[in-house]
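From the shared-data thread, chain only:
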Amino acid sequence: MNNGLLILFSVLILFLGSLLTTIFSKKIVKFLSFISVFIGLVLILDVAFRYFKNLETNFTSLTFKNLDIFIIDSYAIIMALVFLLVGLLIVVYSFGYMAHYEEQKKYYFFVTLFICSMLGLIFSGNLILMYIFWEITSICSWQLIGFYKKNVHLTAANKAFLVTFLGSALMLFGISIIFYENQTFNLSFLKGKTISDLVSLSLLFGMLAKSAQLPFHIWLPEAGVAPTPVTALLHAAVLVKIGVYTFGRIFGFTFSISPEFQIIEIIIAISTILVAGLLAFIEQDIKKILAYSTISQLGYIFLGFATNVSTSITGAIFYIVSHSVAKAGLFLSAGIIEQNTHERNIINLGGLAKTMPITSISFLICGFSVIGFPLFSGFWAKFFVIKGIAEKGYITIGFLSILGAVLTLMYIMRIYNSVFLGEKKFEVKENTKGMVFVVLILAVISVILGVLPHIVLNFIKKI
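Structure, as C-alpha coordinates:
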Protein backbone atom coordinates (compact mmCIF):
# COMPACT_ATOMS: atom_id res chain seq x y z
CA MET A 1 0.00 0.00 0.00
CA ASN A 2 1.17 3.53 -0.78
CA ASN A 3 2.78 5.29 2.19
CA GLY A 4 0.52 8.29 1.69
CA LEU A 5 -2.56 6.10 2.03
CA LEU A 6 -1.16 4.56 5.21
CA ILE A 7 -0.75 8.05 6.67
CA LEU A 8 -4.29 8.93 5.58
CA PHE A 9 -5.67 5.77 7.22
CA SER A 10 -3.80 6.48 10.47
CA VAL A 11 -5.24 10.00 10.64
CA LEU A 12 -8.76 8.74 9.82
CA ILE A 13 -8.55 5.94 12.40
CA LEU A 14 -7.58 8.42 15.10
CA PHE A 15 -10.37 10.73 14.01
CA LEU A 16 -12.87 7.84 14.03
CA GLY A 17 -11.58 6.77 17.44
CA SER A 18 -12.20 10.25 18.82
CA LEU A 19 -15.77 10.22 17.46
CA LEU A 20 -16.50 6.78 18.91
CA THR A 21 -15.55 7.98 22.39
CA THR A 22 -18.63 10.21 22.31
CA ILE A 23 -20.93 7.25 21.65
CA PHE A 24 -19.88 4.41 23.95
CA SER A 25 -19.94 4.27 27.74
CA LYS A 26 -17.13 5.75 29.79
CA LYS A 27 -15.95 2.23 30.71
CA ILE A 28 -15.08 1.60 27.07
CA VAL A 29 -13.91 4.99 25.79
CA LYS A 30 -10.45 4.75 27.29
CA PHE A 31 -9.81 1.52 25.39
CA LEU A 32 -11.13 3.08 22.19
CA SER A 33 -8.69 5.93 22.64
CA PHE A 34 -5.84 3.50 23.33
CA ILE A 35 -6.64 1.24 20.38
CA SER A 36 -6.93 4.11 17.89
CA VAL A 37 -3.60 5.65 18.99
CA PHE A 38 -1.98 2.20 19.00
CA ILE A 39 -3.19 1.42 15.47
CA GLY A 40 -2.00 4.85 14.33
CA LEU A 41 1.44 4.09 15.79
CA VAL A 42 1.57 0.67 14.09
CA LEU A 43 0.66 2.17 10.72
CA ILE A 44 3.32 4.88 11.00
CA LEU A 45 5.85 2.22 12.02
CA ASP A 46 4.96 0.45 8.78
CA VAL A 47 5.49 3.73 6.90
CA ALA A 48 8.85 4.16 8.62
CA PHE A 49 9.95 0.63 7.75
CA ARG A 50 9.02 1.06 4.09
CA TYR A 51 10.56 4.51 3.86
CA PHE A 52 13.89 3.83 5.51
CA LYS A 53 14.24 0.50 3.71
CA ASN A 54 13.88 2.10 0.28
CA LEU A 55 14.56 5.77 1.21
CA GLU A 56 12.17 7.31 -1.30
CA THR A 57 13.46 10.43 -3.01
CA ASN A 58 10.10 12.02 -3.83
CA PHE A 59 9.06 14.80 -1.46
CA THR A 60 5.30 14.29 -1.75
CA SER A 61 3.48 11.07 -0.95
CA LEU A 62 -0.20 11.87 -1.59
CA THR A 63 -1.68 14.48 -3.91
CA PHE A 64 -5.18 15.49 -5.03
CA LYS A 65 -5.79 17.74 -8.04
CA ASN A 66 -2.33 19.37 -7.91
CA LEU A 67 -2.58 19.87 -4.14
CA ASP A 68 -0.05 18.02 -1.99
CA ILE A 69 -2.03 16.40 0.83
CA PHE A 70 0.71 14.61 2.72
CA ILE A 71 4.48 14.65 2.55
CA ILE A 72 6.82 11.99 3.80
CA ASP A 73 10.43 12.45 4.80
CA SER A 74 12.68 11.41 7.66
CA TYR A 75 11.88 14.52 9.69
CA ALA A 76 8.12 13.90 9.65
CA ILE A 77 8.47 10.17 10.36
CA ILE A 78 10.78 10.67 13.36
CA MET A 79 8.49 13.28 14.90
CA ALA A 80 5.33 11.23 14.29
CA LEU A 81 6.81 8.11 15.89
CA VAL A 82 8.02 9.99 18.97
CA PHE A 83 4.78 11.92 19.48
CA LEU A 84 2.58 8.86 18.95
CA LEU A 85 4.64 6.72 21.33
CA VAL A 86 4.61 9.36 24.06
CA GLY A 87 0.92 10.05 23.36
CA LEU A 88 0.12 6.35 23.72
CA LEU A 89 1.94 6.16 27.06
CA ILE A 90 0.06 9.25 28.26
CA VAL A 91 -3.25 7.59 27.33
CA VAL A 92 -2.22 4.52 29.36
CA TYR A 93 -1.26 6.79 32.27
CA SER A 94 -4.69 8.43 32.01
CA PHE A 95 -6.39 5.10 32.82
CA GLY A 96 -5.32 5.48 36.43
CA TYR A 97 -5.19 9.26 36.74
CA MET A 98 -8.63 9.97 35.27
CA ALA A 99 -10.41 6.94 36.73
CA HIS A 100 -12.25 8.96 39.40
CA TYR A 101 -13.21 11.95 37.26
CA GLU A 102 -16.49 12.59 35.51
CA GLU A 103 -16.76 13.44 31.81
CA GLN A 104 -14.21 10.87 30.73
CA LYS A 105 -15.92 10.71 27.33
CA LYS A 106 -15.12 14.37 26.79
CA TYR A 107 -11.57 13.87 28.02
CA TYR A 108 -10.72 10.95 25.74
CA PHE A 109 -12.48 12.58 22.79
CA PHE A 110 -10.28 15.68 22.93
CA VAL A 111 -7.10 13.75 23.79
CA THR A 112 -7.56 11.43 20.81
CA LEU A 113 -8.51 14.30 18.50
CA PHE A 114 -5.48 16.20 19.82
CA ILE A 115 -3.14 13.38 18.81
CA CYS A 116 -4.97 12.99 15.48
CA SER A 117 -4.53 16.66 14.58
CA MET A 118 -0.86 16.49 15.60
CA LEU A 119 -0.30 13.60 13.23
CA GLY A 120 -2.13 15.36 10.41
CA LEU A 121 -0.09 18.53 10.89
CA ILE A 122 3.24 16.70 10.86
CA PHE A 123 2.54 15.09 7.48
CA SER A 124 0.71 18.07 5.93
CA GLY A 125 1.98 18.72 2.42
CA ASN A 126 0.59 22.22 2.08
CA LEU A 127 0.34 25.33 4.23
CA ILE A 128 -3.45 25.52 4.40
CA LEU A 129 -3.89 21.92 5.62
CA MET A 130 -1.11 22.54 8.12
CA TYR A 131 -3.00 25.61 9.35
CA ILE A 132 -6.28 23.67 9.71
CA PHE A 133 -4.68 21.00 11.88
CA TRP A 134 -2.83 23.76 13.76
CA GLU A 135 -6.14 25.33 14.76
CA ILE A 136 -7.71 22.00 15.74
CA THR A 137 -4.89 21.51 18.27
CA SER A 138 -5.69 24.94 19.71
CA ILE A 139 -9.36 24.04 20.17
CA CYS A 140 -8.46 20.72 21.81
CA SER A 141 -5.98 22.35 24.20
CA TRP A 142 -8.55 25.05 25.06
CA GLN A 143 -11.08 22.42 26.09
CA LEU A 144 -8.59 20.24 27.94
CA ILE A 145 -6.94 23.05 29.91
CA GLY A 146 -10.38 24.16 31.10
CA PHE A 147 -11.48 20.56 31.72
CA TYR A 148 -12.41 21.03 35.39
CA LYS A 149 -14.55 24.10 34.54
CA LYS A 150 -13.72 26.17 37.61
CA ASN A 151 -13.02 29.86 37.07
CA VAL A 152 -9.25 29.44 37.41
CA HIS A 153 -9.29 26.65 34.83
CA LEU A 154 -11.47 28.54 32.38
CA THR A 155 -9.33 31.66 32.75
CA ALA A 156 -6.17 29.69 32.00
CA ALA A 157 -7.83 27.97 29.04
CA ASN A 158 -9.05 31.25 27.59
CA LYS A 159 -5.62 32.85 28.00
CA ALA A 160 -3.97 29.94 26.19
CA PHE A 161 -6.51 30.08 23.38
CA LEU A 162 -6.31 33.83 22.91
CA VAL A 163 -2.51 33.98 22.88
CA THR A 164 -2.15 31.06 20.47
CA PHE A 165 -5.02 32.38 18.32
CA LEU A 166 -3.25 35.74 18.02
CA GLY A 167 -0.18 33.91 16.78
CA SER A 168 -2.31 31.83 14.40
CA ALA A 169 -3.91 34.95 12.93
CA LEU A 170 -0.47 36.42 12.24
CA MET A 171 0.61 33.13 10.71
CA LEU A 172 -2.45 33.11 8.44
CA PHE A 173 -1.49 36.60 7.28
CA GLY A 174 1.93 35.31 6.26
CA ILE A 175 0.44 32.27 4.52
CA SER A 176 -1.89 34.56 2.55
CA ILE A 177 1.04 36.63 1.29
CA ILE A 178 2.95 33.47 0.34
CA PHE A 179 -0.02 32.26 -1.71
CA TYR A 180 -0.47 35.68 -3.34
CA GLU A 181 3.17 35.71 -4.42
CA ASN A 182 3.47 32.05 -5.49
CA GLN A 183 -0.10 30.92 -6.30
CA THR A 184 0.35 27.69 -4.37
CA PHE A 185 0.25 26.29 -0.85
CA ASN A 186 2.37 23.23 -1.72
CA LEU A 187 5.52 22.89 0.37
CA SER A 188 7.23 20.91 -2.40
CA PHE A 189 6.87 23.85 -4.80
CA LEU A 190 7.83 26.44 -2.17
CA LYS A 191 11.02 24.60 -1.18
CA GLY A 192 14.00 26.94 -1.57
CA LYS A 193 11.88 30.07 -2.13
CA THR A 194 12.99 33.27 -0.41
CA ILE A 195 10.41 35.07 1.73
CA SER A 196 10.49 38.61 3.06
CA ASP A 197 11.24 39.53 6.66
CA LEU A 198 7.61 40.63 7.10
CA VAL A 199 6.29 37.22 6.08
CA SER A 200 8.98 35.47 8.11
CA LEU A 201 8.06 37.49 11.18
CA SER A 202 4.34 36.76 10.87
CA LEU A 203 5.04 33.03 10.58
CA LEU A 204 7.53 33.16 13.44
CA PHE A 205 5.04 34.85 15.78
CA GLY A 206 2.59 32.00 15.24
CA MET A 207 5.24 29.44 16.12
CA LEU A 208 6.48 31.39 19.14
CA ALA A 209 2.93 31.72 20.47
CA LYS A 210 2.23 28.01 20.06
CA SER A 211 5.52 27.06 21.74
CA ALA A 212 5.17 29.70 24.50
CA GLN A 213 8.44 31.41 23.64
CA LEU A 214 9.16 35.03 24.59
CA PRO A 215 7.16 37.25 24.46
CA PHE A 216 4.22 34.80 24.25
CA HIS A 217 5.25 32.61 27.19
CA ILE A 218 2.59 33.82 29.63
CA TRP A 219 -0.04 31.17 28.93
CA LEU A 220 1.89 27.92 29.43
CA PRO A 221 2.64 28.04 33.21
CA GLU A 222 -1.03 28.82 33.89
CA ALA A 223 -2.07 25.78 31.82
CA GLY A 224 -0.81 23.58 34.67
CA VAL A 225 -4.33 23.70 36.14
CA ALA A 226 -5.29 21.04 33.57
CA PRO A 227 -5.20 17.32 34.41
CA THR A 228 -1.58 16.15 34.54
CA PRO A 229 -1.85 13.90 31.44
CA VAL A 230 -3.02 17.00 29.57
CA THR A 231 -0.06 19.08 30.74
CA ALA A 232 2.21 16.23 29.66
CA LEU A 233 0.55 16.31 26.22
CA LEU A 234 0.93 20.08 26.03
CA HIS A 235 4.58 20.11 27.05
CA ALA A 236 5.97 16.83 25.87
CA ALA A 237 4.01 15.35 23.01
CA VAL A 238 1.74 17.68 21.14
CA LEU A 239 1.01 21.38 21.46
CA VAL A 240 4.25 23.22 22.13
CA LYS A 241 6.26 20.67 20.12
CA ILE A 242 4.08 21.45 17.10
CA GLY A 243 5.46 24.98 17.20
CA VAL A 244 9.09 23.86 17.06
CA TYR A 245 8.31 21.13 14.53
CA THR A 246 6.70 23.70 12.23
CA PHE A 247 9.61 26.08 12.78
CA GLY A 248 11.97 23.40 11.55
CA ARG A 249 9.71 22.49 8.64
CA ILE A 250 9.17 26.09 7.47
CA PHE A 251 12.49 27.78 8.21
CA GLY A 252 14.78 24.76 8.22
CA PHE A 253 13.58 22.69 5.27
CA THR A 254 11.33 24.89 3.10
CA PHE A 255 11.98 28.64 2.85
CA SER A 256 15.14 30.72 2.67
CA ILE A 257 15.34 33.70 5.03
CA SER A 258 17.61 36.71 5.34
CA PRO A 259 20.72 36.63 7.60
CA GLU A 260 19.24 39.54 9.60
CA PHE A 261 16.10 37.57 10.37
CA GLN A 262 18.21 34.60 11.39
CA ILE A 263 19.92 36.80 14.00
CA ILE A 264 16.50 37.86 15.32
CA GLU A 265 15.56 34.18 15.75
CA ILE A 266 18.78 33.46 17.65
CA ILE A 267 18.33 36.45 19.99
CA ILE A 268 14.75 35.42 20.82
CA ALA A 269 15.82 31.82 21.43
CA ILE A 270 18.71 32.59 23.78
CA SER A 271 16.63 35.19 25.64
CA THR A 272 13.90 32.61 26.17
CA ILE A 273 16.40 30.04 27.45
CA LEU A 274 17.74 32.40 30.12
CA VAL A 275 14.58 34.24 31.18
CA ALA A 276 12.47 31.08 31.49
CA GLY A 277 15.32 29.32 33.29
CA LEU A 278 15.47 32.09 35.89
CA LEU A 279 11.67 32.01 36.33
CA ALA A 280 11.83 28.24 36.86
CA PHE A 281 14.46 28.68 39.54
CA ILE A 282 12.37 31.09 41.65
CA GLU A 283 9.01 29.30 41.24
CA GLN A 284 7.68 26.94 43.96
CA ASP A 285 4.78 25.17 42.20
CA ILE A 286 6.24 21.97 40.73
CA LYS A 287 4.11 22.06 37.58
CA LYS A 288 4.92 25.73 36.95
CA ILE A 289 8.63 25.03 37.41
CA LEU A 290 8.39 22.28 34.81
CA ALA A 291 6.36 24.61 32.56
CA TYR A 292 9.05 27.29 32.64
CA SER A 293 11.56 24.50 32.08
CA THR A 294 9.71 23.51 28.91
CA ILE A 295 9.76 27.10 27.66
CA SER A 296 13.49 27.29 28.32
CA GLN A 297 14.33 23.93 26.75
CA LEU A 298 12.31 24.66 23.62
CA GLY A 299 14.53 27.71 23.25
CA TYR A 300 17.41 25.32 22.56
CA ILE A 301 15.40 23.69 19.76
CA PHE A 302 14.63 27.06 18.18
CA LEU A 303 18.30 27.98 18.61
CA GLY A 304 19.45 24.79 16.90
CA PHE A 305 17.25 25.35 13.86
CA ALA A 306 18.00 29.10 13.75
CA THR A 307 21.77 28.53 13.78
CA ASN A 308 21.18 26.59 10.56
CA VAL A 309 24.23 24.36 10.33
CA SER A 310 23.89 20.60 9.99
CA THR A 311 25.26 19.91 13.48
CA SER A 312 22.85 22.27 15.25
CA ILE A 313 19.88 21.05 13.17
CA THR A 314 20.76 17.48 14.16
CA GLY A 315 20.82 18.65 17.78
CA ALA A 316 17.45 20.40 17.42
CA ILE A 317 15.77 17.27 16.05
CA PHE A 318 17.41 15.06 18.69
CA TYR A 319 16.29 17.64 21.27
CA ILE A 320 12.64 17.26 20.25
CA VAL A 321 12.94 13.49 20.71
CA SER A 322 14.80 13.54 24.03
CA HIS A 323 12.77 16.36 25.55
CA SER A 324 9.46 14.79 24.54
CA VAL A 325 10.36 11.62 26.43
CA ALA A 326 12.07 13.16 29.47
CA LYS A 327 9.62 16.00 30.04
CA ALA A 328 6.68 13.59 29.79
CA GLY A 329 8.39 11.56 32.53
CA LEU A 330 8.83 14.63 34.73
CA PHE A 331 5.25 15.83 34.37
CA LEU A 332 3.75 12.39 34.88
CA SER A 333 5.94 11.93 37.97
CA ALA A 334 4.59 15.26 39.24
CA GLY A 335 1.08 13.93 38.60
CA ILE A 336 1.74 10.87 40.78
CA ILE A 337 3.03 13.16 43.53
CA GLU A 338 0.07 15.52 43.29
CA GLN A 339 -2.51 12.73 43.21
CA ASN A 340 -1.07 11.07 46.33
CA THR A 341 -0.23 14.16 48.39
CA HIS A 342 -2.67 16.76 46.96
CA GLU A 343 0.25 19.17 47.12
CA ARG A 344 2.18 20.98 44.36
CA ASN A 345 4.31 23.41 46.38
CA ILE A 346 7.79 21.89 46.62
CA ILE A 347 8.39 23.67 49.94
CA ASN A 348 5.62 21.59 51.53
CA LEU A 349 6.92 18.29 50.19
CA GLY A 350 9.88 16.17 51.20
CA GLY A 351 11.18 12.66 51.82
CA LEU A 352 9.13 11.03 49.07
CA ALA A 353 12.08 8.93 47.87
CA LYS A 354 11.46 6.71 50.90
CA THR A 355 7.83 5.98 50.06
CA MET A 356 7.83 6.48 46.26
CA PRO A 357 11.19 5.01 45.18
CA ILE A 358 10.33 4.19 41.53
CA THR A 359 8.85 7.64 40.95
CA SER A 360 11.91 9.16 42.62
CA ILE A 361 14.39 7.27 40.43
CA SER A 362 12.37 7.91 37.27
CA PHE A 363 12.12 11.62 38.01
CA LEU A 364 15.87 11.83 38.63
CA ILE A 365 16.70 10.01 35.38
CA CYS A 366 14.36 12.18 33.31
CA GLY A 367 15.72 15.22 35.11
CA PHE A 368 19.30 14.24 34.22
CA SER A 369 18.21 13.97 30.60
CA VAL A 370 16.68 17.45 30.58
CA ILE A 371 19.80 18.85 32.28
CA GLY A 372 22.01 17.18 29.67
CA PHE A 373 24.17 14.87 31.77
CA PRO A 374 26.33 12.37 29.82
CA LEU A 375 24.79 8.90 29.28
CA PHE A 376 21.32 10.46 29.09
CA SER A 377 19.56 11.42 25.87
CA GLY A 378 19.48 15.14 26.61
CA PHE A 379 23.28 15.27 26.64
CA TRP A 380 23.53 14.57 22.90
CA ALA A 381 20.80 17.08 22.11
CA LYS A 382 22.53 19.92 23.98
CA PHE A 383 25.95 18.84 22.75
CA PHE A 384 25.04 19.03 19.07
CA VAL A 385 23.16 22.33 19.43
CA ILE A 386 26.06 24.01 21.26
CA LYS A 387 28.63 22.42 18.93
CA GLY A 388 26.73 23.85 15.96
CA ILE A 389 26.74 27.27 17.59
CA ALA A 390 30.51 27.04 18.02
CA GLU A 391 30.93 25.98 14.38
CA LYS A 392 29.02 29.09 13.35
CA GLY A 393 31.37 31.23 15.41
CA TYR A 394 28.73 32.51 17.86
CA ILE A 395 30.96 32.25 20.94
CA THR A 396 28.84 34.53 23.16
CA ILE A 397 25.66 32.65 22.27
CA GLY A 398 27.44 29.38 23.02
CA PHE A 399 28.52 30.65 26.44
CA LEU A 400 24.97 31.81 27.23
CA SER A 401 23.64 28.41 26.15
CA ILE A 402 25.94 26.72 28.65
CA LEU A 403 24.73 29.18 31.30
CA GLY A 404 21.17 28.10 30.48
CA ALA A 405 22.20 24.49 31.05
CA VAL A 406 23.58 25.44 34.47
CA LEU A 407 20.22 27.05 35.32
CA THR A 408 18.52 23.81 34.27
CA LEU A 409 20.75 21.85 36.63
CA MET A 410 19.92 24.23 39.48
CA TYR A 411 16.13 24.14 39.23
CA ILE A 412 15.84 20.41 38.49
CA MET A 413 17.99 19.51 41.50
CA ARG A 414 16.08 22.06 43.58
CA ILE A 415 12.89 20.15 42.81
CA TYR A 416 14.48 16.78 43.56
CA ASN A 417 16.04 17.90 46.84
CA SER A 418 12.83 19.56 48.04
CA VAL A 419 10.40 16.81 46.98
CA PHE A 420 12.27 13.53 47.37
CA LEU A 421 15.01 14.15 49.95
CA GLY A 422 14.99 15.48 53.50
CA GLU A 423 12.29 15.03 56.12
CA LYS A 424 9.35 12.81 55.19
CA LYS A 425 6.17 14.89 55.32
CA PHE A 426 3.61 12.50 53.78
CA GLU A 427 2.84 8.84 54.39
CA VAL A 428 1.96 7.88 50.82
CA LYS A 429 2.70 5.00 48.48
CA GLU A 430 2.87 4.40 44.74
CA ASN A 431 -0.60 2.91 44.57
CA THR A 432 -1.39 3.25 40.86
CA LYS A 433 0.96 0.74 39.25
CA GLY A 434 0.01 1.62 35.68
CA MET A 435 0.98 5.26 36.17
CA VAL A 436 4.29 4.34 37.82
CA PHE A 437 5.03 1.85 35.02
CA VAL A 438 4.59 4.55 32.35
CA VAL A 439 6.98 6.91 34.15
CA LEU A 440 9.54 4.13 34.51
CA ILE A 441 9.32 3.30 30.78
CA LEU A 442 9.98 6.95 29.88
CA ALA A 443 13.01 6.97 32.19
CA VAL A 444 14.36 3.78 30.61
CA ILE A 445 13.95 5.25 27.11
CA SER A 446 15.88 8.34 28.23
CA VAL A 447 18.78 6.11 29.27
CA ILE A 448 18.66 3.93 26.15
CA LEU A 449 18.76 6.96 23.84
CA GLY A 450 21.63 8.37 25.88
CA VAL A 451 23.73 5.21 25.76
CA LEU A 452 22.75 4.36 22.16
CA PRO A 453 22.15 7.75 20.52
CA HIS A 454 22.63 6.32 17.04
CA ILE A 455 19.15 4.81 17.30
CA VAL A 456 17.96 8.33 16.53
CA LEU A 457 21.05 9.81 14.86
CA ASN A 458 21.07 7.23 12.06
CA PHE A 459 17.60 8.39 11.02
CA ILE A 460 18.39 12.09 11.40
CA LYS A 461 21.36 11.69 9.04
CA LYS A 462 18.93 10.65 6.30
CA ILE A 463 17.07 13.98 6.45
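The two ends are 23 Å apart (CA to CA).
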